[in-house]
Design goal:
Length: about 475
Amino acid sequence: MTGLVLYNTRTRTREAFEPIESGHARVYSCGPTVYAPQHIGNLRPYLMADLLRRALEAEGLRVTHVINITDVGHLTDDADAGEDKIESAAAKSGRTAAEIAALYTEQWKNDRRRVGCLEASVYCKATDHIAEQIALAKRLEAKGYTYRIDDGLYFDTAKFPRYTEFARLDLAGQESGARIADVPGKRHSADFALWKLPAPAVQRQQEWDSPWGRGFPGWHLECSAMSTKYLGAPFDVHTGGVDHIPVHHTNEIAQSECALDVHPWVRFWIHNEFYDLGGEKISKSKGHVLVLQDLVDRGFEPLAFRYFFLQGHYRQQQAFTIDAMEAAATGYRRLLGVAVQVRDAAERPDDAVISAYRARFREAVRDDLNAPRALAVAWEVARGADLGAAEKRALLLEFDGFLGLDLASATPRTAVAESDPRIDGLVAERESARRRKDFAAADRVRDALAAEGIVIEDTPAGPRWRRT
Ligand code: AMP
Ligand code: ZN
């Protein structure tokens, strides 16, 4: 038995976690739609999934973590009308859909790394899995769960009696305000596209042949198809933002349970609440998104944002403000300061002294990933008058396996972090050149900085710089 207890959206209760396959946890996280920069709110689902992953590993489980990348089919309107977000971003920018997707995938991957998220076992793109999606839709069609209209192939939600169960939907109530007319022929507002056929006048960059005509997959299909490919069915945990519960996750469940004859398709559904980013001012649609690099430009270390994340429970809404970020950065610097003070402690820690702290930290992690409580225990250790340097060092390093704050490589420099937007920008430029495998460009930046007496160190949390 693991000691981990998680709040499961499916049952609306806290449940003890046990993997289906002994010793192996299989986790799928809904990933980004890569049509625009991912803002700092978008990082919360991945930080949450990262905590989950670390908590599962702390229970001694091997974790297979799959994250998808949505690069086709996600429309501006959840009712299957509207434009494809990627196509529309491509048209507006004059770049290809593939270029747009590659650009923002890179930004997202880089930002995830910078905030200390461990790499997923698999990153899978929707456009790389068209055949799997078509196969799943064919299976649903063969079993009688679909109907065809001019707009494409649709899932008939009336054929799946459990449809409303997951999100506790009130479809009768919804019907009155339905936008069913947006797609002529749609039988019910909740029905959703498995395969879309573009209107004759619409020119798309991304389309594929299918038994229903040349078109593109509906957004929800990719998650069912790719999770089945990489994790099998059923699997243990599916994560995502709370906004996905009523439509995206409800539809994923409908498709998967009907196509695969499995119930429950996923044992645990874990959802993160939103950050309040200040409404209009920094919303994606208005084009003023606050991205991690904006925080770096203001002098924050990326891991200070992780510290901010750890200060709130993932199921609580939280207001993000620059003041709150500053408080988090101060807390983070202080914790690094303690880690530096005890860094060279060479004595053996006294197990009897540390076991009580260890137990309390573990209890916090096991209590639905209670990061704020875990962080509070780390602070008790950092301040603890009853603890020697060796005990503090051992405990902080152990706790960092969950916190992911890179306390092990804390140096006096990071403890009082220097910040310089110009240098941070150049380091980021080198990083993106390296990711493009343009090593000549990366080396040019490195050499230019070296000439100023600045060295770049590559750490698991991303590159850092210091003056020599
Ligand atoms: P998107 O790329 O827009 O599909 O968003 C990716 C993920 O970020 C989704 O799972 C959303 O639930 C999540 N998300 C978007 N905005 C916020 C926010 N302000 N706070 C937390 N999560 C968010
Ligand atoms: Zn999904």
